[in-house]
Amino acid sequence: ANTPMISAADKPKIIGIIFSFIFIFKNFLIKLYTYMDQNKAIKFLYNLSSKLNKFYKSNSKKKLIINNKSKRKKIFNPVTNFDKGFEKMIRAYIVKSFPNDGIIGEEFKEKKTKNKNYWIIDPIDGTKAFVAGLPTWSNLVGMIYKKKSIMGMANFPELKKTYISYNNTSYILDKNKKKKLKTNSVTNFKKTKILCNFHNQNKNLKILKKLDKLSKNISRITLDAFSYCLLAEGKLDAVIESNLKIYDVAAIIPIVENAGGFITTWNNKNAEKAGNILATSNKKLHYKLLKILKS
Predict the structure, then answer these.
(1) What is the rounded CA–CA span in Å between residue 268 and residue 273?
(2) Using an 8 Å Cβ cutoff, are 141 and 103 in contact?
(3) CB of 228 within 8 A of CB of 251?
(4) Is the C-alpha dihedral spanning 130, 42, 51, 84 positive or negative?
(5) What b-and-e string marks burial along 218-256, b requiring 16 or more CB atoms within 10 Å of the CB?
(6) Does the CA dihedral 51-57-63-66 come out positive or negative?
(7) 129 backbone dihedrals φ, ψ, rounded to 5°
(8) Who contacts 180 (Cβ-Cβ below 8 Å, separation ≥6)?
(9) What is the pTM of this model?
(10) What is the pLDDT of residues 103-157, one digit of tens each?
């Protein structure tokens, strides 16, 4: 049989086809790995919520040790032995399951990433509520990939509720039932329910006065992460806060966004930048409030 000859002119074309095939196959493997890795992370969050609840139940009778992290005497910024205990536990599970991922937590030093994944931990969001014996505190765990928050969990051991978000959908786990979350569509200021907390920044009182003139349903309190979860459920219309850190918002961002809400800084930048944060139930209301916050 005659062997077909490959001309010199055809060789670059064949080499190009081979390299294209290699490139496509490599991208396929990367996407497959990313998909598998994300699925692993989703299962991890579900399992972590039950482990956190068991950890709290088994340690809840221990003595509460409280310290003030603030350098200013007039400001109370508590940290407890429970904050540190929760974070140590969460970090240990992450390191075991995702050894190459980075970790940023409120109470301990950053662990650098080797793959652009970062787990963001607020071991007790609402430590003041925890110290006071209120049930609205939570464990926040989020994942950031390439500086974008892609999944998050807010676990409430006392309320026996878990809010979780991934793959463009947010859910609530309540009494062993799983339900999709959806924000509401109220845009009329007179009907909106808004929670504000400026965290001792009195310079923002002018903003509060402007909001008071527009709506009677404004409260100068928040329930920490629970406020944003209620917004994702459609029970609140807006949450306005100042001076937040990345561990306050990383887990919350996907929960709000994937329920149909909007969350940005007051300057309409990505919420991952933290600082002054606005979360709303819909786009129209968001831009109305942004105008007030910018003025």
Answers:
(1) 10
(2) no
(3) no
(4) negative
(5) beeebbbbbbbbbbbbbebbbbbbbebebbbbbbbbbbb
(6) positive
(7) -65, -40
(8) 169, 170, 171
(9) 0.85
(10) 999 999 999 999 889 999 999 999 999 999 999 999 999 999 989 999 999 999 9
Measuring CA to CA, which residue among 135, 130, 126 is closest to residue 251? Answer: 126
Q: What is the phi-psi region of residue 146: left when phi exceeds 0, alpha when psi lies from -120 to 50, beta otherwise?
A: left
- Find the radius of gyration of the CA atoms of the chain: 23
Confirm if 255 and 158 have CB atoms less than 8 A apart.
no
What's the number of CA atoms in the CB half-sphere (13 Å) around residue 25?
6
Tokens read off for 9: 């002119």
Amino acid residing at 196 = C
Of 241, 230, 251, which is closest to residue 182 (Cα–Cα)? Answer: 230
Distance CA 271, CA 282 (A): 16
Asked if residue 111 lies in contact with residue 121, where contact means CB atoms within 8 angstroms, the answer is no
| Model pLDDT for residues 38-75, shown as the tens digit of each residue | 889 999 999 999 999 999 999 999 999 999 988 877 77
